[in-house]
UniProtKB/TrEMBL annotation:
Record-given protein name: B(0,+)-type amino acid transporter 1
Main location: membrane
Membrane topology: Multi-pass membrane protein
Residues of the signal peptide: none
Transmembrane segments annotated in the record for this chain: 64-84, 96-120, 159-179, 191-210, 242-263, 275-293, 305-329, 359-380, 401-420, 426-451, 463-482, 488-508
Length: 538
């Protein structure tokens, strides 16, 4: 089932520059001349006689500068969360003042976590984020454990995290969009589900038959974004910047309107702070997203951490000011009884003009879908390089230099997650699994301090801060299970267990499949694919 051509055995903890040797296979002269001495190992890997993708190698282009990186992170963070999470935070704190403090503290946690990601990201500046950090960070302490954790993360990310998030945001987009064009009764859930599934389903048809993008613009937002990402990385980056500008306009309208009506809040004795943090941190989701595309960042050792610091600082300011605006316009009861606080805010402040607010919010959510489609396929590509997925997912389209197979896989599974259309359950599933691997990433950062002490670090996070983030992650994993146990946690555990079974069969035991080799060859010819080389230029 899984490719063994690309499979690399767990590296020796004492091996020199094991990551570049693991990623292997490069023909670019610019990389051969790299200042990293370990890059010389790349040309020592020979293709086997059964190699499905021989000879031609191309790399992803470095198109993301500092401003593009900031825009990318802001686009990933600021979206549906700020329009939904305030209700959950207030419900658990019962205090306007404490609620604002929680939002600021959530921003601090997100910023601290992002800085930890930035440190390990500059040590291992290759696409893949958590997969790479567990494979090479924890793997530097124990190679087999790092390999297992990396596989399980790739499994969970491919089949749970990314497609479920795309489904959640697509359903959110459909809900807000239909709310803007229908009467005040709101759209029926069946229509929301049909629109989301139909939209994502058109993606496969487009990629198979290469239909013109303009013919699809009126049909499906997910198809449009998948097409943009599959055709041009540069266009996708510019689209992200446009979306950031549009979302900033929305936020500024809310902030300014609230400041006009500023007033006093109330505070009560908070006993449910844990779940309040859970809601607030979900709104900050996306803080580590830029690490996923480090192969496409210009000068990653500088722009990676700087983009994170600037983007998270902006997000904290925007979120706190937005919540101040909410509380100056709405009472606590009004906010708690609202299913879409931004829409309720608009009805109170903008009056008839608020009719268009759901449409603008749907555009904001659309930006998050665009960002997810941009980097979720990169996870598949890096996982396939390690042999964790079929080899075809390590390939890029020759003319466009984009990971087309990964884009197709993610959209197909997103359709599957849209069928139940239970957004709350999907959010719970996503949050639980994501914080498991975030905690492991923080642990990998600590491991690198001892196993790679001489590695160049553009930023070095204090050890106490990393330990704090480990404790936060542990708390966010355990607290929801204790306070609100449900079947979703069991499902997540079962999916991870199935991933371990697949690891044992296809990675540890190295079971091979001639059928998958034929499928790889067919897809390579059909989509005009070539295996992507690793871009290690800093």
């Amino acid at each position: 089932m899984l490719s063994q051509t690309n499979r690399v055995e767990p590296t020796d903890p004492n091996a020199h520059a094991n990551f570049t040797s693991v990623q292997g296979r490069h023909t670019s002269s610019s990389v051969i001349k790299s200042r990293h001495s370990s890059s010389e190992l790349i040309n020592q890997v020979d293709y086997s006689e059964n190699e499905v993708f021989p000879h031609e190698k191309k790399t992803l282009k470095r198109n993301l500068g500092l401003f593009s990186g900031i825009s990318f992170i802001v686009s990933m963070i600021i979206g549906s969360g700020i329009f939904i999470s305030p209700k959950g935070v207030l419900r658990e704190t019962h205090s306007v003042g404490l609620c604002l403090v929680i939002w600021a503290l959530c921003g601090f946690i997100a910023l601290s976590g992002a800085l930890c990601y930035a440190e390990i990201g500059t040590i291992l500046p290759l696409s893949g984020s958590e997969l790479v950090y567990m494979k090479e960070g924890i793997g530097s302490v124990h190679a087999r454990i790092g390999d297992v954790l990396a596989f399980v993360f790739n499994w969970a990310n491919t089949f749970i995290l990314q497609p479920s998030t795309i489904a959640i945001l697509s359903l959110t987009f459909s809900t807000y969009f239909l709310s803007g064009v229908m009467d005040s009764c709101g759209p029926p859930i069946e229509l929301v589900k049909i629109l989301a599934i139909f939209a994502i389903g058109l993606l496969d048809y487009f990629n198979l038959f290469y239909l013109d993008l303009l013919d699809l613009c009126m049909h499906c937002h997910v198809v449009i974004l998948a097409n943009v990402n599959a055709l041009s990385v540069t266009v996708a980056n510019r689209l992200n910047i446009i979306f950031v500008i549009l979302k900033t306009i929305i936020i500024l309208v809310i902030v300014i309107g609230g400041l006009v009506r500023i007033g006093k809040g109330t505070t009560n004795n908070p006993f449910s702070v844990a779940l309040a943090f859970y809601s607030g941190l979900w709104a900050y989701g996306g803080w580590g997203s830029l690490n996923t595309v480090t192969e496409e960042i210009k000068n990653p050792k500088r722009n990676l951490w700087l983009s994170i610091v600037v983007a998270l600082s902006l997000a904290i300011i925007v979120y706190v000011l937005t919540n101040i605006s909410y509380f100056t316009v709405m009472s606590k009861d009004e906010l708690l009884n609202s299913n879409a606080v931004a829409v309720t805010w608009g009805e109170a402040v903008l009056g008839p003009v608020s009719r268009g607010l759901p449409i603008l919010i749907s555009v904001s959510t659309l930006a998050n879908v665009n960002g997810l489609l941009f980097f979720s396929a990169r996870y598949c590509m890096v996982g396939a390089r390690y042999g964790y997925l079929p080899e075809v997912f390590s390939c890029i389209q020759k003319q466009r230099l984009t990971p087309l197979p990964g884009i197709l896989l993610q959209t197909i599974f997103a359709i599957c997650y849209c069928i139940p259309s239970d957004i709350d359950s999907l959010i719970t599933l996503f949050s639980f699994v994501s914080w498991v691997f975030s905690g492991l990433t923080f642990f990998a950062t600590v491991c690198c301090r001892f196993t790679k002490p001489d590695a160049h670090r553009t930023i070095k996070v204090p050890i106490p801060l990393i330990i704090l983030m480990l404790l936060v992650a542990l708390y966010l994993i355990i607290a929801p299970v204790i306070s609100s146990p449900n079947i979703g946690f069991l499902v997540a555990a079962l999916v991870l267990l199935v991933g371990l079974i697949f690891y044992y069969l296809f990675v540890f035991r190295k079971m091979k499949s001639t059928f998958m080799k034929k499928i790889n060859s067919f897809l390579q010819e059909f989509f005009d694919l070539t295996q992507a080389a690793v871009n290690t230029e800093a």
